[in-house]
Amino acid sequence: MKFNKFNANQIREINKGLSSGLDVSVYRDECFDSEQMREIRLGLKANLDVSIYAKPSFDSKDMQTIREALENGNDISKYLEEGFSSQELYWISKGLKEGFDVSIYAKKKFDGYKMAEIFGALKSGLDLSPFDIDALSEYQLQQVILGLRAGIDVSSYADPSNEHMFEDRVKLVRECVGNALASGENVTQQQLNIIAHYKNDGLDTTAWENYKFDRDRLEQIVKGLEKHVDVDVFAKPKFSKEQMYEIRHGLMEECDVSVYATTDFNAEQMCEIRKGLRINLDVTPYATPEFNMHQMYEIRQAIKEGSDVTLLANTAFDFQQMRQIRKGLAEKLDVSVYADPEFSADKMYYLYRGMSEGFDMAKYVDFNEDQLKRIVSGLFEALEVCKKKYGITN
Fold it and tell me: How far apart, in whole angstroms, are the C-alpha atoms of residue 85 and residue 108?
């Protein structure tokens, strides 16, 4: 086969077709550029009727839209024949894929932008049938849709002759949100502005608009709404913004936040519990307010390392003592030798270090940390001497 009339990219597409056992004669034509060839090749590979779009008059974007529609089982041939643009075909194809009645917007009088607005409304489950969408401009249609998403009665301003739809919509939204003030709640104007903004974006604010939340806590609620989590779990004045953050992230990570969604825990403790839940650890040994975040960290790490934390999870130990016990547990040492709340973390460290090298440290537990430091140092020196003497290298 001669390729001298094709460029490198076209030859690559032809070779890909040949290697896939496709009938490349359909697109082995210099009138197709490499991107058009690619769309035809992908159609052939998917066993589509590529004759619908394998025409030089369609650019690669058109071809892609048609191919994807065909892959979804939607024949958009009639819309092609009616001369819809690539952008318009895109929204028609998306509507067909969603199972919408695209006749609502598949009209030559609508451009792609207006089609996009109507598609978005249908996707949100909004009912546009009461409105004369043919007569509404793209801008007016947008105001109607925003109002519907905010849950307000748009019938008062959804008139094609109304030149002040934006102002009317904003006024209605603010009046709706202003009900919080009318009910005697301590809601600031700044809060009303924030609530109005997100209400206008279609978020259901009823669960929290009457509370006195500052900007930072409102931000956590809004982020939760945007991620479709149950904000009622943390949209409560009793939680700080940091606590809200930890509960919100726990919900996003599909954790059982009921374990820690209480003011008994501060945000740092919540974080340690959440980190355990996130990787399916049994957080029961440390999910108690009696442990601070540092103690929780040590217990969580021990559980993660597969250690039995029965002895470790003791409020009598501070986190530095816990760390020495945890290290011993990880090495399968008999930590009962030094796991005594009366022992300082330093004393525990020297006992652990000696045991880690195989020394019997039980006989030295009555020495203080300074004495133990010298003992361990002497034992290590003696060990090095023995290694040299017998040629031990590790």
Answer: 10
Would you state the structure tokens that stand for residue 337, as one six-digit string? 């030798």
Q: For residue 369, how many other CB atoms are within 10 A of its CB?
A: 15
Distance CA 319, CA 292 (A): 9
Q: How far apart are CA 324 and CA 331, in angstroms?
A: 11
CB 56 within 8 A of CB 32: yes
Tell me the Cα Rg of the chain: 35
User: Which tokens is 211 given?
Assistant: 């509370």
pTM score: 0.51
d(CA 283, CA 289): 12
With beta carbons less than 8 A apart as the criterion, state whether 161 and 136 touch: no
What are 134-181's pLDDT values in tens digits? 898 888 888 888 788 767 788 888 888 988 888 887 777 666 655 544
Q: Largest alpha-carbon pair distance within the chain?
A: 102
> Do you know the residue count of the chain?
394
Give pLDDT tens digits for 33-67: 999 999 999 999 999 999 888 888 788 888 888 88
